[in-house]
Design brief:
Layout lengths: L2 E2 L5 E7 L9 E6 L3 H6 L1 H14 L4 E5 L5 E4 L1 H7 L3 H4 L4 H4 L5 H14 L1 E10 L5 E13 L2 E10 L1 H53 L4 H25 L2 H5 L2 H12 L6 E6 L11 H22 L3 E9 L2 E8 L6 H7 L2 H12 L3 E6 L5 E8 L3
Parallel strand pairs: 9-10
Antiparallel strand pairs: 1-2, 2-3, 4-5, 4-8, 6-7, 7-8, 10-11, 11-13, 12-13
Helix pairs in contact: 7-8, 10-11, 11-13
Amino acid sequence: MSSPRPNNTVVKVDFSPSPKGATTAHASWRPSLPPIAQRLGWHDSERLFFQVFKNSLQPMSITTLAEGRYIDVNPSFLSLLGYERHQVIGKSSLELGIWKNSAQRAELVRRLKSDGLVRNFETALRGAKDQTLIWLSSADLVDIDGEPCILVISDDITEQRRSEQQLRDVSARLIRAQEEERNRIARELHDGLNQKLALLCVDLQEFGQIHGDLSQQLSAFSLRLQDVSADVHGLSHRLHPSKLDYLGLLPAVKSLCHELSGRRGLQIEFVNNNDVAEFEHLDKELALCAYRVVQEALSNVIKHSGAVTARVQLRCRKQVLYLLVTDSGRGFSVDVAKQKGRLGLISMQERLRLANGKLIIRSRPNRGTQIEARIPLPN
């Protein structure tokens, strides 16, 4: 069997039966050889391939296509998975339980049959001591004695993925700590400072009634204190929306749109195509994630877009929560914004990533912007 190559050449590998007791299979490359192999000659090119196969730090294996039976593996493969050679050769990957998810092998085989090669295929494997390894593999179809087989070369990215997971965990803890601190400050502002300001307004009104000659000045002071109290209340609400806790996502987002509408001449329309009951049992962390994404998106509209109209839409469909924030503003270059590392975009992306969600930004200069968030919902 031949395997296609980008330059339309054909590589065919012919493995003859190994002598009894041999530790590696015998192979020759036919019929199209690269120039270096032609200069070296058949036996030299054969030896060169097996030197690379044996000495490579990358795990390499050759298995049958049909059963996944191991014909040959290199020392790096054995070392990383923790097997001895005699435990692997002649056995299938499914027999050994190397694939943590056998569907991944089925997908690899499907793609190989379709394209003849596979690149950057990430797999989760199980080692001899039940340890989990993550490999990024490239695979090619080859012929061995007329039987279709798979040549796989991999990179062990286990530590990279573990480090990425640790960073995600740290990020999640930071976001939770931030929300807890916001909640604490919001409570102190509402229950402490705001209550004291309200009592002070009452005291000023009573003092004004006693001292009629100062009533006009005291009334002005009282109005200013009421403005300060309203600002403190708004700050408390932005830090932690109590409506989200008590009424749920839809009323909280609707209230947010009403609260922000009118700022810098922006009119915000809220649209919901679903029954409110569909949002009632939404997980609190997912609801908070969705609220913060809408809040950040609207904040960016107000600060940067120059838009006069914006639209916020929430809907649930096929166990996915969709959030869309669309504006008629000046728009921007998405690539440039990502390169600059805008904190608003980073914040939304990080929150959605922790919820296994996805952020899609559609924008062009002078053509407005649409922010779409998709959050998968648990069954």
